[in-house]
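In this supplementary section we document a worked example of the pipeline. Step one takes a protein sequence of length 543 as its only input; no multiple sequence alignment statistics are reported here. Step two produces a three-dimensional model, which step three serialises into C-alpha cells for compact storage. The input and output of this example are shown verbatim.
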Amino acid sequence: MPVNFAIYRILGNSLPPRHDPECTLRNLRYILAHEADLPGCSKHWILNGLIDQALATECRTLIEAAGQECHVLPFDEAVYNAQFLDASGLPADLAGNYPPDFNPVLIRNRLAIEWIYRHKSLTAININRARNMALDLGQSHARWTIPLDGGCYFTVDDWVSLTRTLDADTDALYALIPMLRLESNDRFMEVPGAYPIEPQIAFRDDAPDRFDERLRYGNRNKAEFLVRIAAPGPWHTWNAADWDDFTPVAAKAPGCFTVAGRAYRLETGAAPQVESHERQRHAARFEGVVAMTNALDRRALMSRMCRDCVMPLLAPEQTVDLRAQCEQLLDRWQHAYAENGWKALRKLWILPMIYGCGSADPRLVAGAGPLLKFMESGEEGIRTSLGMDADGTWMHLLKLALALYTAQWSLASRLLNYAPLRFIAQQTRNASIPPAALTERIDRANAWVLLARLSHFAGVDVAAFRGVSGESIPALLEDLARKGPEAPQWQADFQAYGQWLQMLQALLDGRVCASDAANCGDLMPEGWRILAASAYRPGSAET
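The serialised model returned by step three reads:
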C-alpha cells in the first residue's frame, strides 16, 4: 500500500533584508512550473497573513490555476493595531535605554529587540499557527502531512527516497527532512559555506505533538519542537533570553522520529552576506520584522487620519480663545522658548484637537514645522527628549501633537509606538523617587494622561498598555493615590490632591469632567479643559 502524503506550503510576507521583496511570488511560480508530480502526494498551500491583497489574490489565482488547493489565514488588522511595543520584563539596563531616535537595527542585543517587538511580531507572523493549521487539514485525509516553508522544493529522486524510508519505518511518528539552501534556482546551486539548517518535518496522522504557537518568528519557533522531540542538532544550544519567561511544552512522543529524504530551500534573494552565516540571517529576520511592523503602523495611522480625524474635535466657535492663544504662541515660539523654556510651549499639545490632523493652516504650519524640527534635531530638544522626567514626557507629547497637526505620519507613528517604551524606561529609571519629589510625579502623571488621550484621538489606546508586571498609566495614578499623602506639602491640602486625582482619572477614562477645578489649585495640566469640553468616550466617533 503506497504511503499517502499531503504537502502544505506556507506562503508569508517577504521581509527584506531577509528576503527580497519579490521572493514570495518568484518562488511560488518556480515551484508550480518546475516541481514534478510527486508519487502518492497531494499539494496544498496556505497564505499566511499576506498584507498585500493584490499579492494574495495573484498567489491564489496561480495556485488554483495549477489545480492545487489554497487556504487563507487572513491578516487581522484590528487585532494587530491593538498591539504595543513593550520593553517591560527586560533588565533595567536595557528597559531603561530609551533614546529619542530609537533605532532597533543599531542595537546590538538582537534578543532585546525581538522581545520589544514580540506582540506585533506574533500577531503579524504567527508561523506556528499556520503549521498547526496545515497539520489539522492534512491529517484529516493523509497518512503523512508535511507543513513546508513556502520556498521549499523536492526533486523526484529525493521524494522517492523519503517515501521509501517512511514506508519501511513503521515506528516513526515524525520524519526529519534535511534541507539545503540554494543560492540560485536556475542553476540549483547551493549557498556556499556549511552551517546548521533546521530540517523540514513530516508528521504521521497519529503524531501527538504540535508546534508552540506562543513562539515568535525568529524565536526558536521550529527549533523548540526539534528540542522537544529530542532531535539531535545545534538547536539544543539555542536558548531563550534570560528575561523570556517561557514555560516549555512537554513532549508527548519524544524520540519517535527518523531522518528521510531531502528538500531544497529556493533562493531568498537576500544579499550574500545575509545568507553566509546563521548569525546574519538571525539579525536580518529581526530587521525585517521591524521594517514590516513600522510600515504597517504608518499605514494604519495614515488610514485612520484620512478617514476619521481630519476634522477638529470641537467646532471653531467652542475654541476661539484657545485658537488665538495657540496662533500667538506659534508666531512667537522662539521668543517664548528663549524666555521660559519648553514649559512655555506646553499648551500646543492641543493643536490636533482644535484644528484637526493633516488639514493645517499653511501660515500656522510655517511656525509648527520649524518648531518640530527644533525639537527633533536641535541640541536642546534631543537633550530634553532623552530625559526620563516630566519634561521628557511633555516633549514626547508636544512632538506627537505637532507631527499629527502637520501630517508627518511617519514621525507621528514612531512617537505613538515608542510611548510605551518611554513609559517603561521612565518607570525603570525612576522606581525609587522619594515622596519629596511628588511635584515631579504629578507633572509626569499630567503629561501621561494627556499623551494617552491624544494617542486615543489618533487611534492608539496607550492607556490600555500593560507591562509584564502590571505597569500602566492607570497603575501610575493608583500609585500616586497611595504615596501622595506621604509627602509633607500635601498633607495640609489633601482635598486638592484627592480632587486632582479624581479628575485626572476621569480624563484618562474619557469621561466628562466637572468644569469647576477650583479645589485642585494649580495641579491640573495645561489645556485639560479641551478634553472636558469634548465629552467623548473611548471608541466613539471623534469628530
